[in-house]
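ok trying again, last paste got cut off:
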Amino acid sequence: MIFKRGYIQVYTGEGKGKTTAAIGLAIRAVGASGRVLFAQFIKKKRCSEHHVLTTLYPSIEVRQYGQGCFLRRKPNQKDITSAKMGIREIIELAPRGDYDLIVLDELNVALHHGLVDTEDVHELLRVRHPKTEIVITGRYAHDLIIERADLVTEMRNIKHYSQRGLKARKGIEK
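nice, full thing came through this time. structure:
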């Protein structure tokens, strides 16, 4: 383990950069000889970062527990089943100390939409190895997560080019 004590970090808010910040932290942990689990909730599509993370950084393991974005639809049973499977799997992995850093990308959104239960998130934070750093990303950070966190950063949207109708670009947003 590279950390003497693992903290809980939260990147939340309406602004861009939450996942990007978590990726940067994952790369920094690998640079210090750490092992990283990058667990993505909601997301199913493989994006540019997956290629880089899994090709250049073999000590970063990427797992996805989602059926895809549901901005224009309600979450369905497959979304719920996938997210619940993911949180349970991570509850099993977290106490072992196999990872120096576990990123729970979009867990806040999964919790907000009822894909995972607050009890499961509380259990995960309770049973994690004391030297494992946890990073939780996504809008709508739950009060439980904010209370348990050691660091909370809120990304605030001041101006975004999507407001002018510009699309997401490969290598920048996807």
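cool. The chain is about 35% helix and 20% strand. The longest strand covers residues 36-41.
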